[in-house]
Amino acid sequence: MFxxxxxxxxxxxxxxxxxxxxxxxxxxxxxxxxxxxLGDSISTNGVCLTVVALxxxxxxADLSVETLSLSTxxxxxxxxxxxxxxALTLNTPLGGHLVSGHVDGIGQVLSRKxxxxxxxxxxxxxxxxARYIAQKGSICVDGVSLTVNAVNGSRFELNIVxxxxxxxxxxxxxTGTRVNLEVDLIxxxxxxxxxxxxxxxPGSGKGLTLEILARRGFLRD
Length: 221
Fold this sequence. Notes:
There is one protein chain. It contains four helices and 13 strands. It is mainly beta. It has three domains: 79 residues, Elongation Factor Tu (Ef-tu), domain 3, CATH 2.40.30.20; 80 residues, Elongation Factor Tu (Ef-tu), domain 3 (Beta Barrel), CATH 2.40.30.20; 30 residues, no CATH class. It has a seven-stranded antiparallel sheet with strand order 10-9-13-7-8-12-11. A six-stranded antiparallel barrel has the order 1-2-5-4-3-6. A hairpin with a 4-residue loop joins strand 4 and strand 5. The relative contact order is 0.16. The model has no long low-confidence stretch (mean pLDDT 90).
């Protein structure tokens, strides 16, 4: 688990194919690794990766086909900047929100506008994730815990303050930039709980329907 508070910006040193998978080498810069061991997790642009080697200047992690298909990591090139966060402990302040590092899909930056000292981004999420995104709710973008300022269909807006721009790779975002999205854990589990016994029925992974909500008494004529 993570908090979505970025601890350092790293650099992609190399990516190598290993069959259908890939092996990623990250130079961690200012991120201390003296308390990191093999098998520990590090959020890399919002993706929870397992450390398989510690070469001295950073860490090496394997990327599965599933990770490559649901995140932007496969499209990165050496030199790319990366948001990094070590896994939280019971002593870690929860400054953001609970983040699993399990990316749900890829969004795309539609616009970037100056808003006082901040930058306002509009991002489009995959339609399958839109129902989990709520105004003033939480969302994780490339590993950064953020508050949703506005929602319009599958599009949502973020107001990013100077500190976040400085401490993350969000300052690099331009129109067309693809980003990793993780929706709020509570929203995902709430949907599953509302399915009740229907969660055991094949095909229930498609989520809630108006029919299901009506049967549960959430809709009235």
